[in-house]
Amino acid sequence: VYLTYYLNDKTYVKDTIETDDKGTFSLTEKLDQGLYMIVLPSETMKYSEFIVGPEQVFSLHLNVKDPSENRAQNSKENQVLFDYVKFIADLSKRAETYNGIIQRSQKNGNKDSLNFANQQLSLLSSEKSAKDEEIRKNNPDLIFSKLLGISTHPMPPATVTDKTEQFLFYRTHYFDATDWNCEALVRSNGFLGSIDTYLEKLTSNQKDSLILACDYILGLAQRNKEIFKHVLIHLFNKYANTETVCLDAIYVHLADKYYLSGQAYWMSETEESRAQLDKIRESTDKLRGTLCGDPAYNFKLKNINGKPVELNSISASNTLIIFWSVSNSNSKKSMTELAEMKEILTKNNIQTLAIALDADSNAEQEKIKRLGFDFCEILIPDEANQAVLVKKYNVKTPPLIYLLGEDKKILYKQLSVASLKSMYN
After folding, report:
1. Is 365 exposed, middle or buried (0-12, 13-18, 19+ CB in 10 A)?
2. Low-confidence ranges of the chain (pLDDT < 70)
3. Residue 110, Ramachandran bin (φ over 0: left; ψ between -120 and 50: alpha; else beta)
4. Are strands 318-324 and 410-413 parallel, antiparallel or unpaired?
5. 8-15: long-range contacts at Cβ-Cβ below 8 A with a sequence spacing of 24 or more?
6. What is each CA distance from 72 to 18, 32, 39, 83, 184, in whole angstroms?
7. 392-402 b/e with 16+ CB inside 10 Å = b?
8. Which of the four, 126, 156, 226, 326, has the lowest number of CB atoms within 10 Å?
9. How far apart are CA 374 and CA 368, in angstroms?
10. What is the pLDDT of residue 43?
């Protein structure tokens, strides 16, 4: 069998265990506190979960084919867990009955049966909540109680009837039952998911709101060094890999406030981690000045006819900057699509600056002129200016589109033409 464990909501194999012909085995190694599984290798990968807490001298009878048969000796922690598994299995069977009634009622239009089944499912949900509360109240020190706390979120009192106030109450008290001192939470299967729900479902998908939410969560996590470490790493990776426009500002914020300030204490422990910290510093430096809300770097370039054009001298409601290359098919496609938006751009007082990369030769400029793009100012940087612009605007691969406000602050970046169309239609 496999001994597996949870870490940051993912499952890892701890060890492969040899059993005797009765399926018996023993473990003598001290384990980190948290939620573990015994997995029976098979096509269906059946398993049984158990908890390792402070007291690690106990025995378990595990039935991976039917976890409701599990029993614990000298482990209240696991007996409470096993009894709860039985309770949930019974609850699920009853729920199946009512779900079947709902499906049939939806087909035959029987509203009375549909309402009855929905009411019964609501009662089952209340029964589960009551059981969770009972376990947590009677066993406050058990790790299992703290694991239940991850998914326990106080509902607004009956006196709060306004939907906005109900939402604010729920959001404000969302983490009330989470024990941020319990290190075992990082070795469970729901802790980071609960944090993601708070960020993705209960927080506005705007960089300023998400930055405040991340700082709030990390403030709670600082009660325990190990919890803080895992939560910070999770949030940092989450926003380092985000594809949502403008949310890279969260990545820079987390780097500045926690990693580069020294609060990420584990990053100074080895040469490898210190080298990683240098990479973080380098990557965030590349993003500075290109974050949404930052003033766009001002430049003065000649257009394709030799006339100088300065960014900050442009008077327009919005300025669109596209870095493109005449030899790049995706660039030409984007430019063609923008040309088709000429009427929309004019109507909304949007000035477009098309900065042609690697186009300082006469031959390249002739190619550009033959394309006939008359909806924009085509700007031709020389080699020195191009090097500065590529760095200042973090141009990796053309095409790259920025949209600026009237004050020349960055509103959006890495825009597609399709998303730009949707904004103005």
Report:
1. middle
2. 43-44
3. beta
4. unpaired
5. 8/186, 8/191, 8/192, 8/230, 8/234, 9/188, 9/189, 9/190, 9/191, 9/192, 9/193, 11/37, 11/189
6. 21, 19, 17, 10, 20
7. bbbbeebbbbb
8. 126
9. 11
10. 61
Distance CA 61, CA 182 (A): 26
Paired tokens of 353: 């600056």
Residue that the structure tokens 């029993």 belong to: 71
Q: What does the block give as tokens for 147? A: 């694991």
CB atoms inside a 10 Å sphere around CB 345: 20
Q: Which long-range contacts (CB under 8 A, 24 or more apart) does 139-142 make?
A: 139/76, 139/80, 142/53, 142/76, 142/77, 142/80
CA distance 40 to 47: 6
38 forms bridges with which residues in the sheet?
3, 48
The tokens describing 27, both together, are 């473990």
Lookup: tokens for 176: 């009330």
Model-level pTM?
0.87
Q: How far is CA 405 from the centre of its chain?
A: 28
pLDDT of residue 232: 98
Q: Mapping DSSP to helix (H, G, I), strand (E, B) and coil, where does residue 246 land?
A: coil
Is it true that the peptide bond before 67 is cis, omega within 30 degrees of 0? no
Is 375:345 a contact under the CB 8 Å cutoff? yes
Helix (H, G, I), strand (E, B), or coil: what is residue 257? Answer: helix
Which secondary structure element, helix H or strand E, spans residue 411, and what is its range? strand 410-413
Q: If you search the block for the tokens 């008359």, which residue do you land on?
A: 374
Place of tokens 């060094």: 225
